[in-house]
Design brief:
Number of strands: 0
Distance between the termini: 52 Å
Helix content: over 70%
Radius of gyration: 19 Å
Strand content: under 5%
Length: 191
């Protein structure tokens, strides 16, 4: 197990260094000051990889963001990760970023992985499914597959347990627009 972790870390470091990235950034993003390679766990590696991916994405360095997320997914697939919330965050964030980069098939793949993981670990009625369903609905809405979009929005709506959800207004707006596009004006006004 430790050999695999070392390989993942060294490969990540090599990619960053070969790409001409700042060596100090590469070292500090992979190795935390007080941690030695032997003390890193799959969970801490995943946290570092996801945080690095989000940092690259926010600085508009999309290729490095995608590579960091791919490394994070590889860490999950290698096994040993016990932090379920980090696995959830990895799949959801990677799906959202793939969508924003126009990689719709990949986005749906990672959102489906997030959905399956969430259902098996948190249950079919978990509120953690709401952002997955909203983002999946948004993809289908943009593809003009109104039936699938509506289905996902309604799934998300059924899981919202209070009116304070940040997704409620977006879901209602999108459902209203779907009904409007179908010339169902009276139903659209409900939303």
């Amino acid at each position: 197990m430790k050999k695999n972790l070392k390989k993942v870390l060294l490969f990540s470091l090599l990619l960053v260094l070969l790409a001409g990235e700042n060596k100090n950034l590469a070292l500090t993003s992979i190795f935390i000051e007080d941690q030695k390679l032997e003390n890193l766990t799959p969970d801490s590696i995943l946290v570092n990889q996801v945080n690095r991916a989000l940092k690259f994405y926010s600085s508009r360095d999309f290729n490095y963001a995608v590579q960091s997320f791919e490394n994070a997914v590889q860490t999950i697939e290698n096994g040993g990760v016990t932090d379920k919330n980090m696995i959830y965050r990895t799949y959801v964030n990677f799906g959202v970023i793939k969508k924003r980069l126009g990689k719709i098939t990949d986005a749906l793949k990672y959102l489906k992985l997030a959905e399956d993981f969430t259902i098996s670990n948190y249950g079919i009625e978990s509120a953690k499914l709401v952002p997955i369903y909203v983002n999946t609905g948004n993809i289908y809405n943009e593809l003009s597959d109104l039936f699938k979009a509506q289905t996902y929005y309604e799934k998300a709506l059924s899981l919202i347990d209070n009116s304070d959800s940040r997704y409620l207004s977006q879901i209602n707006n999108n459902l209203g627009n779907i009904h409007y596009k179908r010339n169902e004006y009276n139903i659209a006004l409900i939303f």
